[in-house]
């Protein structure tokens, strides 16, 4: 089967979970592979490239302006990503459980959209610097799905209310959400890595 998105797949140790790595604007399928290994050594890693170009930089969906999303395109791309994950689970040794998304910025936003629009596709989400991508009606049933929202206290791009609103939205859908504030701005910090690694170990039941 020819998979629909340009991507990289790195097998994990037998029985290990799979991380779906979703880059930020301007990244590609290689961007978060080292991060995935640092966060959860031995996990399988599936890393697609966003298909939308903004000034030559790959993204996972279109935006109309900074912080203003093209919701029709977002829904389309979320469906495409959900279909890609389903195809990849048939193509690669990814285990019996859905992958956990690890997304940064634009990648975190598309991960949140997939959680909200296509429940069951992902087993959870570690979302670095996300915003509310959209508010589906009705809300999905995400009972018990683990999600971590990691927000920067001095992030110049994302209002703190956005992080809190996303955490609240996911909680209202039933997800088991933690909202963690880390020092720094929009870029990842050592605190993100430390907290994210511990959260992932807890989420997948690794001591």
Layout: helices, strands, pairs:
Blueprint: E1 7-10, E2 18-22, H1 33-39, E3 44-48, E4 52-54, E5 57-59, E6 63-65, E7 68-69, H2 71-91, E8 100-104, H3 106-117, E9 124-128, E10 146-152, H4 160-172, E11 176-182, H5 190-204
Parallel strand pairs: 2-3, 2-8, 8-9, 9-10, 10-11
Antiparallel strand pairs: 1-3, 4-5, 6-7
How much of the sequence is in beta strands?
Answer: 15-25%
Q: How many helices?
A: 5
CATH homologous superfamily (4th level) name: Alpha/Beta hydrolase fold, catalytic domain
Known CATH architecture? 3-Layer(aba) Sandwich
**How are the strands ordered across the major sheet?**
1-3-2-8-9-10-11
Largest sheet: 7 strands, mixed
What is the chain-wise order of helices and strands? EEHEEEEEHEHEEHEH
What's the assembly state of these chains?
single chain
Rg over C-alpha atoms, rounded to the nearest angstrom:
15 Å
What is the first-to-last residue Cα distance?
A: 36 Å
Shape: globular
- Total of domains: 1
CATH class: Alpha Beta
The CATH topology assignment is Rossmann fold
**Helix proportion of residues, in percent?**
25-40%
Mean pLDDT: 94
- Residue stretches low in confidence (pLDDT < 50, at least 5 long) are none
User: What class, by secondary structure content?
Assistant: alpha/beta
| Beta strands, count | 11
């Amino acid at each position: 089967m020819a998979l629909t998105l340009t991507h990289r797949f790195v097998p994990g140790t037998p029985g290990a979970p799979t991380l779906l790595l979703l880059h930020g604007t301007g990244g590609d399928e290689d961007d978060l592979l080292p991060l995935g290994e640092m966060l959860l050594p031995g996990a399988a890693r599936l890393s697609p490239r966003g298909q939308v170009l903004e000034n030559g930089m790959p993204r996972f969906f279109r935006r109309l302006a900074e912080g203003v999303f093209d919701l029709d395109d977002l829904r389309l791309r979320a469906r495409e990503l959900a279909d890609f994950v389903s195809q990849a689970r048939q193509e690669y040794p990814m285990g019996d459980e859905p992958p956990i998304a690890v997304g940064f910025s634009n990648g975190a936003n598309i991960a949140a959209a997939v959680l909200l629009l296509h429940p069951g596709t992902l087993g959870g989400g570690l979302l670095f610097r996300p915003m509310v991508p959209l508010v589906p009606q009705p809300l999905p049933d995400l009972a018990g799905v683990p999600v971590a929202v990691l927000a920067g206290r001095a992030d110049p791009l994302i209002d703190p209310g956005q992080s809190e609103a996303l955490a609240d939205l996911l909680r209202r859908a039933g997800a088991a959400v933690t909202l963690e504030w880390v020092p720094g701005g929009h870029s990842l910090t050592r605190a993100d890595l430390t907290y994210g690694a511990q959260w992932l170990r807890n989420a997948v039941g690794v001591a």
